[in-house]
Amino acid sequence: MTLRGFLGLAALLIAGPVFAQSSSAVNPLATRPGWEIGAQLAQYEYREPDFAKVSGNRLGFDGAGTLTSGPLFGRFEARVSYGSLDYKGSGTSTAVPDWTLEARLLAGVEWLGSSASFSPYLGLGYRYLFDDLRGYSSTGAAGYRRYSNYIYAPVGFTLRFLLGGGWVLAPTLEADVFLRGKQISNLSDTGIPGYQDVTNMQTSGRGHRAALMFEKDNFAFGLWTHYWHIDDSDVQFAGVVAGRARFGGEPENYTRESGIELRYRF
After folding, report:
1. What is the dihedral of CA 12, 15, 16, 17, to 10 degrees?
2. Is residue 5 scored above 90 in pLDDT?
3. Which DSSP state fits 173?
4. β-strand partners of 36
5. Alpha-carbon span 180 to 197, nearest angstrom
């Protein structure tokens, strides 16, 4: 599908009557075309109730490219984030390497007023996470590498309000419709004879995100938060250990990441 066709489909799904638009070059309330790069600092927590928690600070970088065509816009976003985190569960561990990569394709339409604008959008997103718990916790429990993959559909909107002096306040609210997840657990990393790597599928979950940004000319900065609640996965055979068949699954879990961001817009 061409970009024009993709944007047209988004308009059919979202739009009703559209008011007259003006270029973002002269109207700070309009979606701004072009490129953006940003840096993020965040606090992260992954939690499996009554079992384990991985938490700590993260540093991230993101980028985006936006195209506009009248009231329609299309946007590609990418983000990478890294943390050296703390684990608490079957013992404790520190300096756990943890990477998150994310890519999103969005399309939407906007309505412009004299002092505010409204820009709903929808799209498709992919989130990848890798953490490396190899080694031993404080109790001698053996860890392993874990790979997480989510596919989801973001549905949200951005509002923009003129504050004066060229400043714009831009809150964003988004619901993330979880479509499918795949978890790969390298249980063979434990070194326990008989354990084998396991791949589990997840079919139920939900997420949301929010941001409160201040924009002026080429710069934007503000606060943001991402949240996921994913239900239990299926259960798969994990090998024969000490004469007994073992099975593994990804338990219900919660992820929250919140931070600040500074962004430059070309």
Report:
1. -110
2. no
3. E
4. 64, 265
5. 20
Coil, strand or helix at 123: strand
Query: What CATH number has the domain spanning 3-19+33-265?
Result: 2.40.128.100
Each residue of 151-169: pLDDT tens digit? Answer: 999 999 999 999 988 999 9
Tokens 């940004």 sit on residue: 213
Q: What percent of the chain has pLDDT over 90?
A: 84
pLDDT in tens, 164-218: 889 999 999 999 999 999 999 999 999 999 999 999 999 999 999 999 999 999 9
Measured CA to CA, the distance from residue 5 to residue 74 in angstroms comes to: 11
124 forms bridges with which residues in the sheet? 105
User: Which pLDDT does position 26 carry in this prediction?
Assistant: 62
Q: What's phi and psi for 55, nearest 5 deg?
A: -150, 165
The answer to whether 201 touches 181, Cβ cutoff 8 Å, is yes
Token pair belonging to 13: 């799904």
The reported pLDDT for the residue numbered 141 is 87
Domain boundaries, the chain: 3-19+33-265
For 14, list phi and psi in degrees, rounded to 5: -105, -40
Strand pairing report for 219-230 and 235-241: unpaired
What separation in angstroms does the CA of 222 have from each of 39, 90, 156, 246, 265?
11, 37, 18, 47, 14
d(CA 151, CA 127): 7
Position 106, amino acid:
L
Say yes or no to pLDDT of 2 above 70: no
Query: What is d(CA 148, CA 180) in angstroms, rounded to the nearest whole number?
Result: 11
